[in-house]
Amino acid sequence: MSDKVNFGAAERQGEPVGTGKRPGAEGGPGRIKERLDKVRALIQKPEFLEGRGLSNEVNIRIFCYEPENEMMVRHFVNQLETDPSLDGHLKICNLYKTFLSVCGDMDITDAIPGMEEADGSAYLLEQLSFAIGNREFIDKIQYEPHEPGDVLMLTGVGEVFPFMRIHTLLEALQPYFSDVPILVMYPGEFDGRHLKLFNRLKPNDYYRAFSVIE
Question: pTM, whole model, 2 decimals?
Fold first, then answer.
């Protein structure tokens, strides 16, 4: 399933959250590079790794960026993945690749294009939603043992939409990673109360994460 399923415009509508500058608005290529450098520093800090200063809240952080900077963020993540000088243990999980892996395990990958062509995108999404839920993602993402210095970085949030919604996955993941900080690379907005993918879709309520690197 190399090509993304083509869902219609109705899936990509939403009203802006609040007013003023969007959280994560970069203001140019230099700004996003500066913010990504701060992410690299952040994930190595003891206070981040240990969740200090969160008042007993869960250690889930969201890095928002403009969707047009997706390729720069992917390049940054690829660099982190192969950087031997990085302190700690970065566990990178691309959620779209995870979804494809689940489809492969279920032996349905080859059938998906034909199902979409025959029955339409809405029917395909409904069937995949029944077959693949948070449990299947968690089974792929979780690992043992967790070690001090581990960081779980979730990427591919935009790629995997609408097959997975990050706010529901984070709620389901938290009990399995209560001792590991989670950092979500998010192409959209988070104002501390609402997640808005691509800065366009209908906002989803989510209160448990913290935005990082304004």
Answer: 0.82
